[in-house]
């Protein structure tokens, strides 16, 4: 890929910068917390510690989001914890885990972040030194790598270029490794123990299973209502008309034709209703045109200009395809109804064995799931397949919905 190495170095530098920033935060937060904890002896600590732990929780939540994006979703999602006082905080294992994480970031994050940033900055310094070496006094020339001085144009284009090559190679090879190491230590410090992870998985499975059961029951009720109110009503009318036609046939055969015509129309209406019900369970457009064709059709119906990019192979399980189709349909309907956006785009791609969908609009944002059933329904539908929906919709916009659903 053109510019691939540059992109890797830039991405690694950004990640190292964040890791370093978290390390700096921990350098301030941990001593402050220790001080506040000690001051509990005189009482004031009981007021000082909770806000600091609350802030630590928010920072850790942001880090969880970053780790999920960078390394895949293996941590519990950010929690919606209210402000709590000391007794409730002390018994919360998550708080202790976040403290452990802060201590690890204080040492490991600061170190790995600083080295990662240095690796990214060194090539820039070498490049600048080649051209600007003359700005330094002759008796104290610029030295960047291994204390080798650059004293003239000759050394600038020999030593300088050699240094530039070495530092660029180091940034390309080691930069991403350091950035990833920063992410790994952060994740391992943030992770719960195997026992707690198992308990969380069981709880999550119970929740998604009951979500799946609820969604299934709701689907059954809807199908039952659709069949009852639509198809069955048409079939009852059809049977009545055929009975009437049989009775009329003896007396007045000429009057049977309009009755049969009405019966035929009733049968067609029943078939069309039945088709609608079937369509709502697995949209036929998916089997006809595949996910990309089906999504393109949904985007074409949206009044906000929508760009669709689908980069997935074959072999996506049918339930996952259907879930992605319904989620994108609901998201674009919401964009139409609520966002006031002037453009939107939908990206569908594979990341490892997950299908990842990003739906972006430049509208007013401010999604509130409690105001409707659509977004909550998307979440339930995905959770039933072990997928996750992340909603990022600050007031004022923009809105980004991200879906990650395993296809294994
Ligand atoms: N893309 C968006 N931009 C701005 N606000 C949004 C967007 N999507 C949803 N919303 C807001 O979030 C709320 C919840 O959306 P949701 O889809 O759950 O409900 P709804 O669309 O109002 O009703 P329904 O249950 O029919 O879907 C909406 O009422 C709307 O105010
Ligand atoms: Mg909606």
What is the total tally of β strands?
A: 7
| Rg (C-alpha, Å) | 31 Å
Give me the number of helical elements: 10
- Main β-sheet, spatial strand arrangement: 3-4-5-7-6
Describe the overall structure:
By secondary structure, this protein is of the alpha+beta class. The protein contains 10 helices and 7 strands. It starts with a helix and ends with a strand. It has helices spanning 4-38, 45-71, 86-90, 93-132, 153-190, 194-251, 256-281, 284-301, 318-339, 374-383, and strands spanning 142-143, 149-150, 306-311, 344-351, 354-361, 388-392, 399-406. The longest helix is centred in the middle third of the chain and has 58 residues, at 194-251. The chain folds into 3 domains: 4-190, no CATH class; 208-281; 286-406, Heat Shock Protein 90 (2-Layer Sandwich). It is elongated. 68% of the residues lie in helices and 10% in strands. Strands 3-4-5-7-6 form a 5-stranded mixed β-sheet, covered by helices on one side. It has a two-stranded antiparallel ribbon with strand order 1-2.
